[in-house]
Amino acid sequence: QLQLVESGGALVQPGGSLRLSCAVSGFPLADYAIGWFRQAPGKEREGVSCISRNGRGTNYAESVKGRFTISRDDATNTAYLQMNRLNAEDTAVYFCAAFPARIESGCAIRWTYENWGQGTQVTVSS
Question: Which is nearest to 81 in space by CA: 99, 59, 114?
Fold first, then answer.
């Protein structure tokens, strides 16, 4: 059974940085595209970014473009979300999710991701 575990969430000051990790077990990460999502209190869950199976394709929500970078390391079955220049609007629980994409080089945040982690809290506050 595919399992995903997020980590790296923390309290950080505005303008700071965090790197979130998504550890995947049960199946090879290489078989899946990975997406990062977030949900702030009282708001709908929103897609943040995704990365293709081979790592060559990425997509980002407009709100994080230029600040966040998604990556993956199939050797360690781990995906990452590097978040820079954080602001209060980035405060949310962040989730990673996997999609068994047939294509290797593309991804879409709107795909119906099937496997989800439990989330990690990111709080941006002074």
Answer: 59
